[in-house]
Amino acid sequence: MVETIAYLGPQGTFTHEATQLLFSNKNSELVPYPTIPDVLTAVDQGVSDLAVVPVETAVGGSVNLTIDWLIHHVDVPIIGEVIYPISQCLLVHPQHANRPLQDFVRIYSHPQAIAQCQEKIDEICPQAEIIYTESTAQGATILQSNPEDLALAIGTKRAGETRNLVIKEEDIQDHQNNFTRFIAIGHKWVDFQEEQKSVKHKTSLQVTLPSDYPGALFQVLATFSWRKINLSHIESRPTKTGLGNYFFIIDAELSHEHVLMRGALAEIKALGCNVRVLGSYPSFQVNELQSLKK
Amino acid sequence: MVETIAYLGPQGTFTHEATQLLFSNKNSELVPYPTIPDVLTAVDQGVSDLAVVPVETAVGGSVNLTIDWLIHHVDVPIIGEVIYPISQCLLVHPQHANRPLQDFVRIYSHPQAIAQCQEKIDEICPQAEIIYTESTAQGATILQSNPEDLALAIGTKRAGETRNLVIKEEDIQDHQNNFTRFIAIGHKWVDFQEEQKSVKHKTSLQVTLPSDYPGALFQVLATFSWRKINLSHIESRPTKTGLGNYFFIIDAELSHEHVLMRGALAEIKALGCNVRVLGSYPSFQVNELQSLKK
């Protein structure tokens, strides 16, 4: 059976790369959507079987739009995670491949990519005007279709190659340890690729603390700490009902079916917290881009 | 002596209102800057004495740009906080004051204001195209200078009044409990307004946990919990050195000079955490817009 997998497009984004990596051995049709809400709504409404979106970047932190939509608008579990190294490339139209970088007047890219390469930009072409695009791939497309424009773009190697642009330089991000977390959501379980079987298992929780109970967060963390359950991520997001009212999003490194996790969840509820399991899923870390097939 | 106070402009933004509220009894010159980094840099470089920026909204959560700049780029303490009710108003050019709302084809406003009024927009003019502006005040300015444009703007009452626009409706935000937190930073202490003396005192901390010490956050919260020091806010922000490395930003409701806080901070450091005090300051909550003087 052919699955359809929605992802944050257009083609050639890092989400596209992560989606191919997660599902490359499947008989799948990958369908790009223009925004994160569109991607998540596609699977929520059954238009797609699965969806892949970014959830955290090393420089920008959490992708709040993804988390807020998972909390407030869709009810589809997280079924997998991939932690993927982002290699930003400097792209140029072949007509200008040999020009010195100080000649360029514009740089197109997504705000996150610009933020990841800020020091490099200041070093190599501080004179250039920054033009924000909706995706790194869109910046590459603009470059391709405007050969007279003295512009650069920052994006994936693949975005450059598929548009016949010249990869002027690879790995131009300021920090080499530049990973992004992507999550897959869906109503059905899937088997991920064989070679990715050595993984952690995570459970993502949305915890609402009882109001007027100072120290409730401390009690919640105590239930994990006593059991030596490691928390890889904790953050607060607004409930939107008033300033100072938060959900806590907690990623615990254990399956929700493990006896220790079942005990922790039961106790947190007994403390008066509302607990929603956003998903319990395998997490893959990709350390080498070479492991990307195709 | 005249103080100069930088704020996130242009004139007529909510930050402008909050700045006037905090410093209305001072002999101050208020200077608008176009971006949050510009405001914070002005005081960091000594161009301004003080600066006021938003730090958290009820719907969007933390203003990451403010927090990341306080962590990474400026070294100026927080000296005060005001929690201020945001009343979004529907603004219209007087030429179109009596038109039905379904006639309008565009709505101008800042993305945060649009997010705060999303249900209202869907109800009263779902057909309108949303055009994001850099500030709510900029949207009002566009409306004022284009009388032929069949457009609305969402912004402050004052932004409408000062531009001779019609206030079609007040308090159009989806949640009435719509407060925003603003902080003032500066190298010198100031006396705030007399009538605002009934306040909480807060201390904001940037805590870096020791690496490879599972449960460190739990230990940090324990040092506050045992002393019954209430934490009004806790969040994680990326260190930007790699995925999974975070600073924790913690707001504790006690002065940094209190014996309990001194004990807590000493113990957190002894646990191996790096602790930076971002400021220890009075926090004012404004419940009625009527208390806003001119």
Automatic annotation (TrEMBL), chains A, B:
Keywords attached to this entry: Amino-acid biosynthesis, Aromatic amino acid biosynthesis, Lyase, Phenylalanine biosynthesis
Catalytic activity: prephenate + H(+) = 3-phenylpyruvate + CO2 + H2O
Gene3D superfamilies: 3.30.70.260, Periplasmic binding protein-like II (3.40.190.10)
InterPro entries attached to this UniProt entry: ACT-like_dom_sf, ACT_dom, Chor_mutase/pphenate_deHydtase, Preph_deHydtase
NCBIfam families documented for this protein: PRK11898.1
Keyword Lyase appears in the UniProt entry: yes
Enzyme Commission numbers on file: 4.2.1.51
Residues with site note (Essential for prephenate dehydratase activity): 180
A GO cellular component annotation in the UniProt record: cytoplasm
Involved pathway(s): Amino-acid biosynthesis; L-phenylalanine biosynthesis; phenylpyruvate from prephenate: step 1/1
Prephenate dehydratase domain sequence ranges: 4-187
Alphabetical GO biological process terms: L-phenylalanine biosynthetic process
Membrane-crossing segments per the record: none
PROSITE patterns referenced in this protein's UniProt entry, alphabetically: ACT (PS51671), PREPHENATE_DEHYDR_3 (PS51171)
Protein name stated in the entry: Prephenate dehydratase
Residue stretches making up the ACT domain: 205-282
Keyword Isomerase found: no
Highest taxon of the lineage: Bacteria
GO MF annotations, alphabetized: prephenate dehydratase activity
Organism: Seinonella peptonophila
